[in-house]
Amino acid sequence: MNTEVEIRGPLTETKYKSLLNLLKKKGKLVKESDQLAIFFKTPAHNLSLKGDHSREKLVLKFGGWQKGARREIEVFLEKGQFGNALELLKSLGYTKGHKAPAFRQDFLYRDVQISLKTKAVIGPHFEMETASGNEKSHKKEQAKLRKIAKSLGLKVWTERQYRIHTTKMWEAFHPGPEDL
């Protein structure tokens, strides 16, 4: 099972535009689309259902949502099964969740995925991620991501900063999970 290694940070409109131009020139656009993610509360992990114009999937990430390195399992669904997957989850007791729409642009740049997210609950931000096969390489991969972020002039949130920012923004948008 792979471990997702990720860093995140805020984007101003100016930084978004300059980063988008650079990634269009020096990176490869993998996908851009409106996305809907529904996050379900679980005791120790993050369970989500995600869908966009081309792909739908269930994702289970182990550990706290603010962590930069977590094991994850993705189950890809046949297109058009988002509603059925939601009904299945509701039947299993996941009847409340947080809906999080966003516009997402995913690029490959220097062997990592950089996602630019706008129209997001937590505001415009980037996510930079790669995968690690074992726990020993997490720190090495995070250092690689931070080096790329620094070369791009990006501010990276610490796990604590990300948790504080996200909690504040979510509470303003979602005072609690909603009935699905």
Distance between the termini: 30 Å
Low-confidence stretches: none
Q: Specify the biggest β-sheet.
A: 8 strands, antiparallel, barrel
Radius of gyration, taken over Cα atoms and rounded to an integer in Å: 16 Å
DSSP helix fraction: 25-40%
Strand portion: 35-45%
Shape call: globular
Instruction: Name the helix and strand elements from N-terminus to C-terminus, one letter apiece.
Output: EHEEEEHEEEHHE
Structural class of the helices, strands and pairings?
Answer: alpha+beta
What is the number of helical segments per DSSP (H or I, 4+ residues)? 4
The tally of strands reads: 9
Q: Please list the strands of the largest sheet in the order they lie side by side.
A: 1-5-4-3-2-6-7-8
Mean pLDDT: 90
Layout of helices and strands, plus pairs?
Layout (H helix, E strand, L loop, with lengths): L2 E8 L2 H14 L1 E14 L3 E8 L3 E7 L6 E9 L4 H10 L4 E14 L2 E7 L6 E8 L5 H14 L7 H15 L4 E2 L1
Antiparallel strand pairs: 1-5, 1-8, 2-3, 2-6, 3-4, 4-5, 6-7, 6-9, 7-8
